[in-house]
Design goal:
It is a single chain. By secondary structure, the protein is of the alpha/beta class. Helix content is about 25%, strand content about 20%. It contains ten helices and 13 strands. The strands form three sheets. Strands 2-1-3-13-12-9-10-11 form an eight-stranded parallel sheet, with helices on both faces. A three-stranded antiparallel sheet has the order 5-6-7. A two-stranded antiparallel ribbon has the order 4-8. Helix 4 packs parallel to helix 5. It starts with a helix and ends in a 26-residue tail after the last helix. About 45% of the residues are buried. About 20% of the residues have low confidence.
């Protein structure tokens, strides 16, 4: 069985068992997070209620989704929760994102796409972490043979390769040795049990989930680079493997381990970065397309290039974290940190539609909707934008949708019988 597994891995140009990770996108689990302690503006905790009142559950049902509403998390109340090392409300935040991590894990184990509605962007630390915990076997094995390491001229011989089963959240890898006979003239591999003396190690990259963050801000400050101490600007830094040495000890966060690589993140729509965030993005090669690139290239090229970097074969589970402030304030003014010059509603919907079409979108966050800010017109447009983007994530098409069980109605008596 192991030999067959290795052979399929070598023969596939798109990774192991391509397409097998695709859950039914119509099965959706909704998790509300009425949380506001990650920033200073009151009202964002009402985002989940506002989205439900706007009919998000019924609108998802209308486009054929099977929706299970897990309800709102019960946010812990901690009266004595002073700042610690520039992080405000650390105990409350740590407890909330732990609850969300567990909730998203359960949702994914129930084979549902996790839709998390917030609430401020602090919650993405819990949703992404929970997503990673739920799919320890989602990693794919990608094989790249360094043929130049073999002696030349190269005669038919065998290569012993390590097949890897990776659990990224634990940083563990389990290895099996499998031998293949290499036939260079035929460009084929044949499984064998033993091989002669010529060996070469294969290079494997664990194909963990990818994170698409659509946001005006990078939200990857560490506690030591943040200017405000607001956790909604820090969540990704706690999750990135490469930043582990830069995250100080904070009581309550001991359970939160890094779970993604920096190069598994793609930013779209950035236009307001702090110096520390910009340094991190550049230093660790994070895919980043600002509004300048959106204007210059167009949203279709930006999304295609982002996908080519982090998920070129569209075989990795995708986590979309959509901050409503990525949209221009003219269409999403009811948010705490609006920045002019953002995405249009058409661009936001396009991103959601294209990611949905991959079949790999398995978790979505929509955050920072604050119905207490802005005019009534701002609130209406913000909710309209958020609802339409969520629907696009789950299959709504702008040209319209045909219900899954739809069939053309037939009259009792036809005008002309077919001959």
């Amino acid at each position: 069985m192991l030999s067959r597994l290795a052979k399929r891995c070598l023969e596939s140009q798109r990774g192991l068992f391509h397409g097998q990770l695709r859950w039914k996108s119509q099965d959706v689990g909704v998790i509300g997070v009425p949380f506001s302690k990650g920033q200073s503006e009151a009202g964002v905790q009402m985002g989940p209620k506002a989205l439900r009142d706007a009919g998000i559950i019924s609108k998802l049902n209308e486009i054929g989704c099977n929706v299970h509403d897990y309800g709102d998390l019960i946010i812990p109340t901690i009266s004595d929760d002073p700042p610690y090392l520039n992080v405000s409300h650390p105990q409350t935040i740590a407890g909330t994102i732990k609850l969300l991590s567990d909730a998203v894990t359960k949702c994914r184990q129930d084979k549902r796409v996790a839709l998390t509605i917030g609430g401020d962007h602090s919650l993405s630390a819990g949703s992404i972490h929970g997503h990673a915990q739920a799919e320890p076997n989602m990693c794919l094995i990608w094989v790249s043979l360094y043929m130049h390491l073999l002696p030349m001229p190269f005669n038919p011989s065998s290569i012993t390769m390590k097949l890897v089963s990776v659990k990224p959240e634990r940083n563990l890898a389990f290895y099996w040795m499998v031998s293949f006979r290499v036939c260079p003239n035929q460009n084929r591999f044949h499984c064998i049990r033993t091989g002669p003396k010529c060996y070469c190690n294969a290079l494997f990259t664990a194909k963990c989930m990818t994170v698409f963050q659509v946001d005006a801000h990078a939200d990857i400050n560490t506690p030591l680079t943040s200017k405000t101490g607001h956790f909604h600007g820090m969540p990704l830094s706690f999750l990135v493997h490469e930043l582990k040495d830069y995250i100080p000890y904070i009581p309550g966060f001991e359970w939160l381990h890094s779970c993604i690589n920096a190069r598994s993140i793609a930013y779209i729509g950035l236009r307001d970065l702090d110096p520390g965030e910009l340094h991190i993005v550049r230093e660790y090669g994070i895919s980043c397309f600002t509004m300048h690139e959106v204007d210059r290239l167009g949203i279709n090229q930006v999304l295609e290039r982002s996908m080519e970097v982090v998920n070129p074969y569209k075989d990795r589970p995708i986590h979309l974290s959509f901050d409503i402030d990525s949209l221009d304030p003219r269409i999403a003014g009811a948010t705490g940190t609006p920045v002019p010059g953002g995405l249009s509603i058409r661009e936001g919907i396009y991103i959601a539609e294209e990611l949905a079409k991959t079949g790999m979108l398995t978790a979505v966050d929509v955050v920072e909707v604050n119905p207490h800010l802005g005019s009534d017109h701002d609130k209406h447009l913000t909710l309209y934008s958020a609802v339409n983007i969520i629907q696009a994530c789950f299959g709504k098409r702008r040209e319209g949708n045909v219900p899954r069980d739809y069939s053309l109605p037939k009259p009792d008596k036809v005008l002309h019988k077919q001959h």
